[in-house]
Write a structure and sequence with these properties.
9 strands; alpha/beta; 291 residues; binds adenosine monophosphate; 9 helices; globular
Length: 291
Amino acid sequence: MLKTRTAEVLNSPSAMQAWTDSKRAEGLRVAFVPTMGALHDGHLSLIRKAQEHADVVVASIFVNPTQFAPDEDFDSYPRAQDSDLEKLASAGCLAAYCPSIPDMYPDGETTRVVVEDLSFILEGEFRPHFFIGVATIVAKLFNHVRPDVAVFGQKDYQQLLIIRRMARDLGMPVDVIGAETIREKDGLALSSRNQYLSTDERAKAAGFAKALQVAADQIKHGTAISVALAECYSAIDAAGLGPIDYVAVRDASSLDDLGDGYLDAGVDARILAAAWMGKTRLIDNLPVTRT
Ligand code: AMP
């Protein structure tokens, strides 16, 4: 019987470090793709992007407890390690770093990485613990993997900016690269949490991405930001989502507020939003520029 090919599993920080050392000794550039598993085509597109920037790719699979609040879905978060390892191998990812919780959070640990300001707006207003957990785990993963380059999805746009800021501020020798969001045919951004949606919710969820796309197009063609946002709120509500945590148009590199008026030509902006579909929280964002 043909054995299914899977990525090599590295289970400890020392095994991970030795793997990177051996690749470096061969003169190879190492790319890293951190994930929480339950992999979909969005994750696999990051692997392919990573291959453009390095000779070998390692992904991590770790459901990070510190980025979940006590009332969030840490226990029920989908876990699918066997099929994840097959998917990684078929996308050309050589190794998967799968540490244990004590590997990442040794007994008595008290250290957290806080990227000030950026971590407490938009997503951070609704999930104030979230980016502290993310920055802390990614800093630890970078220490274990020591990659030349790391790839993050624009699907989590604020997260991408925060990791970039952290790497720059702390002088981490890694290039942080952003990769495009992969979507279903009807526009819904792929997400491991989409598995939580019922058939009816899944059908309605397409209205979320659609509303953002309409607002982005309106602003691009000269509609005032306040008008486009008001229509966007109504469209998300009419699609059956709610409550809506936020919909905002921000500067694409600083996430600074751009006011209510017309977007200036030449400014790269981003429309970002979070809303609930039943018990599932969806986030999404799109680029916005004025033509
Ligand atoms: P997660 O496993 O949800 O923590 O995501 C791991 C990485 O995959 C993050 O860098 C995400 O931004 C990225 N990602 C998640 N969904 C998508 C998507 N639909 N398209 C591209 N990248 C994604």
